[in-house]
Design brief:
Number of domains: 2
Number of strands: 39
Oligomer: single chain
Largest sheet: 16 strands, parallel
CATH class of the largest domain: Alpha Beta
Number of helices: 10
Strand content: 25-35%
Shape: elongated
CATH superfamily of the largest domain: Spore Coat Polysaccharide Biosynthesis Protein SpsA, Chain A
Low-confidence stretches: none
CATH topology of the largest domain: Spore Coat Polysaccharide Biosynthesis Protein SpsA, Chain A
Radius of gyration: 31 Å
Mean pLDDT: 95
CATH architecture of the largest domain: Alpha-Beta Complex
Structural class: alpha/beta
Helix content: 10-25%
């Protein structure tokens, strides 16, 4: 079985935050998650993450998804992989992929194609490389007639070697058994007194084994982050890559200012995304929608021809032809059915809103099921929490709930029920009934005149 070892022990002091560098986010996901996803997409599921600084945060993030080992001292990339030797020794028959947890743009296609070359050429080690216009700071790949002869770090390179533009991405395929042997031969006789994983290439060549390189056509696989400016550049690159892909698929943007769309989002052709819109998680949007401006969607499904204006929704489904906004908050567990209208300053939580039902403004609907073609008046509240437990309200089809109605859950309004404005409903109402709850109106004539004759406070 093929394995992966991901190096995620970096502190990232220049980030000026008390957390491991691979947990910093690019387009809403930790850089480490991008790398894990690339491995899994290439069919590499047996993964060991080498943690270091604040390693418990890595453990907390990963849960039981990956194995972790600790690099207690930061003595170089080779030393980091040494910590995973027990993991490697569990199965030495296959190949092992080594990657950097803070280089998020390595992709499954590159990993897979590099493995094919690695195995076809019978290499003991295959370095994944890219060519950069400005290779400063990266390890240079030194090619030979039969493959590569070594990788030289910037700080140890000669002037001639520094002129080489093909650089090491930090990703490698090794035959697992060979990697274990190469690690035994690493030495720290260099300027930094560290054990370089790059030295395994020279060890392989010296032992008569083949070392090769797979050159990616995408230099972005090299990109990493050492400080906040680098992290911003990664986010900008990832953000525009998603937008470029959506443009090619027929999604419209008048202006991309403030638009952030995460990489797992799917949007249909003919939909328009307006400025200030943030779309996160596993959100799917259909065709012919208008989303924004200044809207947030997370883990939602929007069907075709939805208008979603200056509002927020998470964990919910909005069916075709729904008009939402402005200033609507749709909370998880909600479903807004076809043709419904949800207007300004409405909050909906864990509720099912029927077809062509209107909640035009100023309402809270929580833990409720509302039928089709009903109207919910301004100021309506479903009182779903009694301080101990949540209960549901049910409102039947064709109902008309008057303004400032309070429905004290659990309560059910039947089909075609009307409630008078200002009513508090505390028990079920049968079909086609009117619920009205108003105390006696008392009018004290002349009250204001008498009040104004009294001395006023100054």
């Amino acid at each position: 079985m093929n394995k992966a070892v991901i190096l995620a022990g970096g502190q990232g002091k220049r980030m000026k935050a008390d957390m491991p560098k691979p947990l910093f986010k690019v387009l809403g996901e930790p850089m480490l998650e991008w790398v894990i996803t690339a491995c899994q997409g290439a069919g590499v599921e047996d993964i060991c993450v080498v943690k270091g600084f604040k390693g418990e945060m890595i453990d907390e993030y990963l849960g039981d998804r990956c194995r972790t080992v600790l690099q207690a001292e930061r003595l170089g990339t080779g030393h980091a992989v040494m910590q995973a030797v027990p993991f490697l020794e569990e199965d030495t028959e296959g190949d092992t992929l080594v990657l950097c947890g803070d280089a998020p743009f390595i992709d499954s296609k590159t990993i897979g194609e590099a493995l094919v070359l690695h195995q076809q050429n019978g290499n003991a080690v295959t370095v994944i490389t890219a060519e950069l216009e400005d290779p400063f700071g990266y390890g240079r790949v030194i090619r030979s007639g039969s493959g590569i002869s070594g990788i030289v770090e910037q700080k140890d390179a000669t002037d001639e070697q520094k002129a080489v533009r093909e650089v090491n991405s930090g990703c490698y395929w090794f035959r697992t058994a060979d990697l274990i042997e190469f690690l035994k031969g690493l030495k720290n006789d260099n300027a930094q007194k560290e054990y370089y994983l790059t030295d395994t290439v020279g060890i392989a060549v010296a032992s008569g084994k083949k070392a090769g390189a797979y050159k990616s056509s995408d230099p972005a696989i090299i990109k990493g982050a050492n400080d906040r400016k680098d992290l911003l550049e990664l986010n900008t690159y990832a953000r525009m890559a998603v937008i470029d892909k959506l443009l090619a698929e027929g999604v419209g943007f008048v202006c991309t200012d403030g638009v952030i769309i995460e990489r797992n989002v799917e949007i249909g052709a003919g939909t328009e995304i307006l400025p200030g819109t943030i779309i996160k998680g596993w959100t799917t949007i259909g065709e012919g929608c208008v989303v924004g401006p200044n809207s947030v969607l997370e883990n939602c499904t929007l069907c075709d021809n939805v208008t979603f204006n200056s509002s927020q929704a998470s964990g919910s489904v909005i069916e075709s032809g729904v008009n939402v906004g402005p200033f609507v908050h749709i909370r998880p567990g909600s479903r807004i059915r076809s043709g419904a209208k949800i207007g300004d300053f409405v909050e909906i939580k864990n509720s099912d809103i029927g077809e062509k039902t209107a909640i035009a403004h100023l309402a809270y609907i929580g833990d409720s099921d509302i039928g089709k073609k009903s109207n919910i008046g301004a100021g309506t509240v479903t009182v779903n929490f009694d301080g101990v437990a949540k209960s549901r309200c049910v409102i039947g089809d064709y109902s008309f709930v008057g303004s400032n109605t309070s429905l004290i859950a659990p309560v059910k309004l039947g089909k075609g029920v009307y409630t008078a404005a200002g009513t508090t409903v505390t028990r079920d109402v049968p079909d086609y009934a009117l619920a009205i709850d108003r105390g006696e109106l008392k009018i004290n004539e002349g009250y204001t005149l008498r009040k104004m004759k009294k001395p006023q406070n100054k």
